[in-house]
Amino acid sequence: MVTCFRLSLLSVLAAAVAAVAMAVPARAELASPWSAPSGTAVRIVAASEKGALAGGVEIRLVPGWKTYWRYPGDAGVPPRFDWSGSSNVAHVEMLWPAPVRFDEGGSLSIGYKHDVILPFKVTPRDPGKPVELRLTLDFAVCEKICQPADARVELDVPAEGAGASSPTLRAAFAAVPRETAMGGVTAPAIESALIEGTGDQRSLRILARVSDPASADLFVEGPDEAWALPLPARGLTADGRTVFELPVDGVPSGADIATTPLRFTLTDHAGAVEVLAPLSTP
Fold first, then answer.
1. What InterPro entries does the annotation carry (predicted)?
2. What is the pLDDT of residues 129-157, one digit of tens each?
3. Is 204 in a helix, a strand, or coil?
4. What are the boundaries of each domain within the chain?
5. Residue 282 — pLDDT band, cuts 50, 70, 90?
6. Is pLDDT of 121 > 80?
7. Among 55, 66, 75, 89, which lies 20 to 30 A Cα-Cα from 143?
């Protein structure tokens, strides 16, 4: 009899604990107030992504407007992130969803034509203490004419951290190109990147493996902002493979493109990859 009473009591207590747990809402993704420069709105969100503090800089654009990638191409201004006003932050790593190219009256630029979240990962100085995120963002937005914009946003993350990422933030992380090596065979992949020609006639020829040549694009960056490589032209080889070509231009004086690691970002409708490597050996 006593045993049955104890079991009943334990059942009641377990049900009560479960009811209390269900009544307490799970911690949610945190979000700052919006800052509203002309043509756009900016905020930061913070969440727990794979056990670490992460988040995103969310940029909402007026329909028909656009903003720029880390390398803006022929024209445009790359975003500048100043986190120096933050507290308990050792490092913020910015990540970049795959961009698109667009024509601005004859100049080819790289960026985003729609609302975008630029993900980031935060390394706190002391993981057991609150984190105060303070961002000053200098960037540019364009409709027909580009204009500078700046936003100042702040968000406090308690010591227990933020809640789980929203589907929107998870999608932004998923849109960041996957890091891979030169010579991949599963699309999308960069098979080789060679330099051809001599003197002023030199060009880069990048052979890519893609699932849909019509939607594929490639962006090539040097190691720093002194480099200004042009956007490649896409074509097909005689056997139907996708190839990108660009002239050797925009290389800083004294730099050797033949031995310098370049960053290749390849996109198509199946996804995107990023390769950091020197040119292939013939």
1. DsbDN
2. 999 999 999 999 998 888 999 999 999 99
3. strand
4. 30-176, 179-277
5. confident
6. yes
7. 55
Residue 265's contacts (CB-CB under 8 Å, 6 or more residues apart) are 98, 99, 177, 218, 219, 220, 221, 272, 273, 274
pTM assigned to the model? 0.87
What CATH number has the domain spanning 30-176? 2.60.40.1250
Beta bridge partners of 217: 267
User: Running DSSP on this structure, what letter comes out for residue 35?
Assistant: B
Half-sphere exposure of 281 (CA within 13 A, CB side): 0
34 token code pair: 């919006």
Interatomic CA distance for residues 222 and 171, integer angstroms: 28
Residue 134: beta bridge partners? 154
Whether CATH 2.60.40 fits 179-277: yes
**Banded pLDDT at 51 (limits 50, 70, 90):** confident
- Which 8-state DSSP code applies to residue 162? -
